[in-house]
Amino acid sequence: MIKVEDLRKTYRAGLVEVPALRGVSFEVERGEYVAIVGPSGSGKSTLMHLLGCLDVPSGGRYMLDGVEVSTLGEDELARVRNRKIGFVFQGFHLLPRLTALENVELPLVYRGVDANTRREKAVRALEMVGLGARVQHYPNELSGGEQQRVAIARAMVGEPILLLADEPTGNLDSRTGAEVLDLFQRINDAGCTVVMVTHDMTAASRAKRLLKIRDGVLEGDERV
Amino acid sequence: MIKVEDLRKTYRAGLVEVPALRGVSFEVERGEYVAIVGPSGSGKSTLMHLLGCLDVPSGGRYMLDGVEVSTLGEDELARVRNRKIGFVFQGFHLLPRLTALENVELPLVYRGVDANTRREKAVRALEMVGLGARVQHYPNELSGGEQQRVAIARAMVGEPILLLADEPTGNLDSRTGAEVLDLFQRINDAGCTVVMVTHDMTAASRAKRLLKIRDGVLEGDERV
Ligand SMILES: Nc1ncnc2c1ncn2[C@@H]1O[C@H](COP(=O)(O)OP(=O)(O)OP(=O)(O)O)[C@@H](O)[C@H]1O
Ligand SMILES: Nc1ncnc2c1ncn2[C@@H]1O[C@H](COP(=O)(O)OP(=O)(O)OP(=O)(O)O)[C@@H](O)[C@H]1O
Ligand SMILES: [Mg+2]
Ligand SMILES: [Mg+2]
């Protein structure tokens, strides 16, 4: 499903170059549940953005479902992101002028799903993360952990085949976090490939494989 | 230092009322190190905003250093916030058009500190959280954990007497998180009162007292 070869990403901040990813190679089969761990600043979110087709690498190759992602045009990339991938951002990135419900409906709006069906699916996704009573709240009327859960609901509402979750439990107490991890387990059992960046070892232990990143390179790849 | 009596806060979201804090009472002596724990949505950040004079309660009283906070005018509140309190927000709230260095200098700008002194202090604060090499980066050029650490540096640069930290290690790996907790311990030893909301039990165990919040009320207060 995912094949990454010598993947590289260098940022420029002013005149300085930051080599965030310096040649990472690995494969992920369909249906796997992978955790990515490593120190702050080691390149994890950078890797996730490349896997989610949200950014382009500076070097190397990324094959998603057998297709070389760099050969895809803008429209096709947008289509892949919308139909195949669910992305939970480390910083949530909810739209501030939309309610929780409208934020979760958004991927289905882009897909052209009718208003009734998408409202129904969005409500169900929010109920699955325990936010049935918060659907009409705006992001600034939600706690940190509630915003995080809206981001999770939005990533799952379109039933993606690949869920990319960047620090999905960082703002959740252990019980709410466990509920989210149970949810990830359920969709993984249903066939969704899950790749999760986490600093939380409890969350990492729920995965079946651990990729360790340090300083932009892969320093460990273990089946657990 | 802190005395809270039957503190209440009710939000309005559209036509709905959300009683986020429903009568909380406790005292914190100077120099204490307190952790606040509880489920997502239980009222912790709401309480922190009241303690940080960033919001006004709907009921009850808050005395900071013997002064009833509701009797203070806007300018005085701003002065208290700037001179006495360091606040690490759950969502960081860095200014996007300022570099890490400029963000950390901001509390000293408001205080009228000269440019050389504040630059020196801001650089030192950033070095203390391991970001000496990132001072010229803008927030969107920083990893999640780096943004969190800039927010921590900014809260500490003015040498506050009260540090309020809302989920300060949520985006940090265990080692970087431990370094931040060591830093909090050092300023606590130096006399700063520390109140930290956390979902991380390792962080909570570094405090000497634990306040447990559930559904807007205090359900536990233990010395550890
Ligand atoms: N501006 C607001 N308007 C309406 N409701 C709000 C507002 N801000 C917060 N709330 C609600 O008040 C409750 C308490 O929020 P608070 O941010 O204090 O929770 P918390 O304990 O910090 O949660 P977390 O651990 O998820 O950060 C939540 O259920 C939230 O939905
Ligand atoms: N747009 C950018 N411009 C310049 N440097 C960047 C940019 N984005 C990220 N960086 C740098 O690249 C490095 C890797 O960032 P990345 O966000 O991938 O780290 P991370 O492993 O996700 O860290 P964390 O655990 O703190 O979230 C960091 O040192 C960061 O400062
Ligand atoms: Mg990251
Ligand atoms: Mg909170």
TrEMBL record, chains A, B:
InterPro entries referenced in this protein's UniProt entry, alphabetically: AAA+_ATPase (IPR003593), ABC_transporter-like_ATP-bd (IPR003439), ABC_transporter-like_CS (IPR017871), ABC_transpr_LolD-like (IPR015854), MacB-like_ATP-bd (IPR017911), P-loop_NTPase (IPR027417)
A family per Pfam: ABC_tran
CDD domains: ABC_MJ0796_LolCDE_FtsE (cd03255)
A GO CC annotation given for this chain: plasma membrane
Highest rank taxon of the organism: Bacteria
Residue stretches making up the ABC transporter domain: 2-224
PANTHER family, per database record: ABC TRANSPORTER ABCH.1 (PTHR24220:SF86), IMPORT ATP-BINDING PROTEIN (PTHR24220)
Record-given protein name: ABC transporter ATP-binding protein
Species for this entry: Candidatus Fermentithermobacillus carboniphilus
